[in-house]
Amino acid sequence: MLSQTKPLAQAPPLDDPEAFQTALLNWFRNEGKSYPWRDTTDPYAIVVSELMLQQTQIATVLGRDYYGRWMLQFPDVATLAAASEDSVLKAWEGLGYYRRARNLQKLAQVVSTEHGGEFPDTLEGVLALPGVGPYTAGAVLSFAYNKPTPLVDGNVYRVFARLFDSHEVVDSTAGQKQMWAWAEALVSPKHARLYNSALMELGQTICRQKHAECEACPVRAFCQTRSPEALPKKTPRRKTVFQDEHVLFQVSNDQLLLTQEQGNRRQGLWKLPPRPEDQLEKLPLIYKAKYSITHHRVTLHVYESHELSVEDCEWQLLRDVQELAMPSPYRKAVDQLLQDRQAFQLKS
Ligand code: SF4
Question: What would the pLDDT profile of 203-257 be if each residue is shown by its tens digit?
Fold first, then answer.
């Protein structure tokens, strides 16, 4: 997809690509936002930010200082490679999609063991790292090494679809091929670092999904669409699936009964154990909350239980529960229920 020799699906319909790059770069030099990962050329710091931002908003990553705390705890590849999986998952708690944290650690281990701790600086080398696809490879090579490597994310394909008035479905194979071809043809040969950041920021701040601020747009003179809000065309979203989870809250001798997730998505994370299917006893419902994960809308029901025997569970001391990595909906439930329990004990 990123090969420099591959023929373009279709050259970008721009008379003067250099003038387009200059307009974009000038705007970004004056208006570009400062983020911690933009003030560094350390490929490890860049890859951390890219993986964090894959499915999480910048405001969350910065607002709750996930990035800063991660970089303090795991400042380099060697530290992350040697860390325990529990500490890695705990540091990722709240960001969701925990596979990203595991991939990041695997990547650090491969860079440590197979590259002597030095990040590769070729497309083939970076793409061979665990969890790295064309987007992350483009980010590492352009942001860390200023190599003219294209990258396409949701912001970039929105800008391109509007700029070139493309009605191709952007997440189709043909649409993706087209977007990457345009990105490859247009990336600035000398200023790839700034150019790629500028293109993404244009999509984040000016050419936004619901409202394109065309009057303020630095590349308005090059833009071919008359109806920005109708673009890009995308495959319709998957239907929402509603589901329920029924779990137990069982405390005994200052210990809480927990189970460790085996499923792929949250493997290794701790959660409240499921209510046994054959549990006929009417248990009191003590907590209920809704959360979303991809296209699923889940209602979490927590029941208080005493002395129920549940398979594949472990007792964890209450004082240690904060140290265990838990999916956010479970963390909120456990914190709330433990607080309620403490308040009740103080009163009685
Ligand atoms: S002119 Fe409007 S639609 Fe075109 S790229 Fe700029 S903000 Fe987007």
Answer: 999 999 999 999 999 999 999 999 999 999 999 888 999 999 999 999 999 999 9
CATH code for 15-33+146-236? Answer: 1.10.1670.10
Ligand 1 atom at shortest distance from the alpha carbon of 219: 6
Instruction: Point out the ligand 1 atom lying closest to the alpha carbon of residue 158.
Output: 8
Alpha helices in the chain (DSSP H): 17-31, 43-53, 58-63, 66-73, 77-82, 85-92, 99-114, 123-127, 134-139, 145, 154-163, 173-186, 192-205, 328-347
Pairing type for strands 251-252 and 255-260 reads antiparallel
The Cα-based distances of 26 to 21, 55, 194 in angstroms read: 8, 29, 10
137 CA distance to ligand 1 middle (Å)? 27
Tell whether ligand 1 has an atom less than 6 A from the beta carbon of residue 183.
Answer: no
CATH of 42-144, one of 3.30.470.20, 1.20.210.10, 3.90.550.10, 1.10.340.30: 1.10.340.30
- CATH class assigned to 241-347: alpha beta
Q: Distance between CA atoms of 143 and 140, rounded to whole angstroms?
A: 5
- Return the domain boundaries, the chain: 15-33+146-236, 42-144, 241-347
pTM here is: 0.82
Q: Which of 160, 217, 229, 231 gets mutated to test ligand 1 (max ligand atoms within 8 A of its CB)?
A: 217
DSSP β-bridge partners for residue 98:
none
- C-alpha of residue 217 to centroid of ligand 1, in Å: 6
Question: How does pLDDT run across 66-83, given as a tens digit for each residue?
Answer: 999 999 999 999 999 999
Rounded to whole angstroms, how far apart are CA atoms 164 and 345? 65
- With a 6 Å cutoff on the Cβ, whether 247 touches ligand 1 is no
**Residues annotated catalytic, as ranges:** 50
258: CA distance to ligand 1 center in Å? 51
Residue 195 CA to ligand 1 center (angstroms) comes to: 16
In whole angstroms, what is the distance from residue 81 CA to residue 110 CA?
8
